[in-house]
UniProtKB/TrEMBL annotation:
InterPro entries: ADH-like_C, ADH-like_N, ER, GroES-like_sf, NAD(P)-bd_dom_sf, QOR-like, Quin_OxRdtase/zeta-crystal_CS
PANTHER family reported for this sequence: QUINONE OXIDOREDUCTASE PIG3-RELATED, QUINONE OXIDOREDUCTASE-RELATED
Sorted UniProt keywords: NADP, Oxidoreductase
Protein name per Swiss-Prot or TrEMBL: Alcohol dehydrogenase zinc-binding domain protein
Superkingdom classification of source: Bacteria
Lineage, opening ranks: Bacteria, Pseudomonadati, Pseudomonadota, Betaproteobacteria, Burkholderiales
Organism for this UniProt entry: Leptothrix cholodnii (strain ATCC 51168 / LMG 8142 / SP-6) (Leptothrix discophora (strain SP-6))
Entry annotated with the keyword NADP: yes
Amino acid sequence: MSKAIRIHQTGGPEVLTLESVEVGDPGPGQARVRHSFVAVNFIDIYFRTGRYPMPLPNGLGSDAVGVVEAVGEGVTEFKPGDRVGYLLGPQGAYSDVRLIPADVLIPLPDGVSDRTASALMMKGMTAQYLFRQVYPLQGGETILYHAAAGGVGLVACQWARALGVTMIGTVSTEEKAAIAHAHGCAHTIVTGGTAPEALAGLIAKRVREITDGKGVPVVYDSVGKDTLMASLDSLQPRGSLVSNGTSSGPVVIDTTLLAVKGSIWVTRPAMVHYATPRSHMLAMANELFGHVLAGRIQGEPQQVYALADAAEAHRALESRATVGATVLIP
């Protein structure tokens, strides 16, 4: 029998339970993958709490790396022994072994370890689509990025530096500011202890100082409700707000406000719409791993938990006690 984290109802971390499951042979178009590392992402919390609905009971997690054990009929791209990762497909990555559609698997190149890939698969490809597709950065821009010391944030710091982009990053502590700066974030704004209603004044004021009053052309905001006004007030006229997460709560915008703030563009991107069809996903991975192999982007898990301790990993992530990537070891 294999082990998997499953949930039978939505709620707090306590709803995550470790169970024995039967994993059979792969069917047509499937592969059976044994995981070496399973990534923990904030989107997993959205599924656990019910913000993103899914049928219950169910597994959790969509991001892991490991080795192919077996393939089903019609699978020709992979064979047993191949090292792979994935970030799409059905929930259920919080497990030691699982069946998964083979067409979501991404081959891992020689020179990129499973451990590194586990920290960079979802987070690195998120940075790719934010910086290279949603609002394509050309180099020379100054941008605002919220949660710069988070899992995606530390990759974004490095990617911005590689592109020649000046990144202003918000962080919650001085310690996280130092970490973000070491990864390539040019300017940091420490927001810890600031009331949500005061964030706009703190952040936008500093952004205007850094940009000589002009503001930035784009803000990448994964925080949501608490930073909405700070993001809008930091933008240039006709600037773009990329709302790529809502860790502090959903974003609700009166469209009249967008005109008042300078005819602002707003988008809420999702990975699935940028990583499909499969050719797009593979191209994204190739660009990411190219930077990794060239030494421009590095990543290692900063918090490691046993699969059985997934609830503790969720508590740490929700309390903002983590830096960079968090993974589970089956």
